[in-house]
Amino acid sequence: MGNKSGSYEELLDETKELLMKRTANHYIMLINLGMSQYDLELWYKAILDRSKKGKLSKEQMLAIYTEMSDLDPMRISEIVDSIEKIFDEDHSGSVDINEFMRGFILTTKGDLETKVEYTFRVYDKNGDNKISGDEIKKMANAILRMLGSDEKKIDGPSQAIVQQFLGQFTGGENGVIYKQDFIQTVLQNRELLAVLSPFYGTAD
């Protein structure tokens, strides 16, 4: 996913486009996450310098979390495992730096509602304030990987959990999840938070 082999400038622009869109809502969300554009650029450069062609291995992700976050060391391994499952779609053993940045932000910045909104934006690829079509498929596949399953070899229990998850949202089973419905439903249901782990283990 994302820019696989671009220059620093191209990679940074891609992540800034995702994290800092020029609308009031995105700007407010960025403030809620406690980040300025300057902070993001310094942070991104520090992480990029550790990467290999814009990709991070599991060992590199563990080192970044250990050195650059104040998370409980006992949870870091669990979090990195989960980020790898969600974003390593091609099972290459590495994660695109842009995807890692999103996961890192979700686990280290902002209050619970901000994290839930940010999670929605991770899956709302075209920014139309709804998750539909291929976006729902990608979200379902990410959940399957979180459950230790494989989208190519789906076991019954995991499939049931995904269907139950989608069924919690108005219209979810019909192929569309709207932003406000996603936020309200996840905030009201701790089981959904668990399915979307690891992003909420440090929620306020």
TrEMBL record:
SUPFAM superfamilies the UniProt entry points to: EF-hand
PROSITE patterns found in the cross-reference section: EF_HAND_1 (PS00018), EF_HAND_2 (PS50222)
Highest taxon, organism lineage: Eukaryota
Gene Ontology MF annotations: calcium ion binding
Keywords: Calcium, Lipoprotein, Metal-binding, Myristate, Repeat
CDD domains xrefs: EFh
Pfam families attached to this UniProt entry: EF-hand_5, EF-hand_7
Every EF-hand domain range: 75-110, 111-146
Gene3D superfamilies registered for this protein in UniProt: EF-hand
InterPro entries on file: EF-hand-dom_pair (IPR011992), EF_Hand_1_Ca_BS (IPR018247), EF_hand_dom (IPR002048), Recoverin (IPR028846)
PANTHER family tied to this protein: CALCIUM BINDING PROTEINS (PTHR23055), NEUROCALCIN HOMOLOG (PTHR23055:SF178)
Family designation: Belongs to the recoverin family.
Name of the protein in its database record: EF-hand domain-containing protein
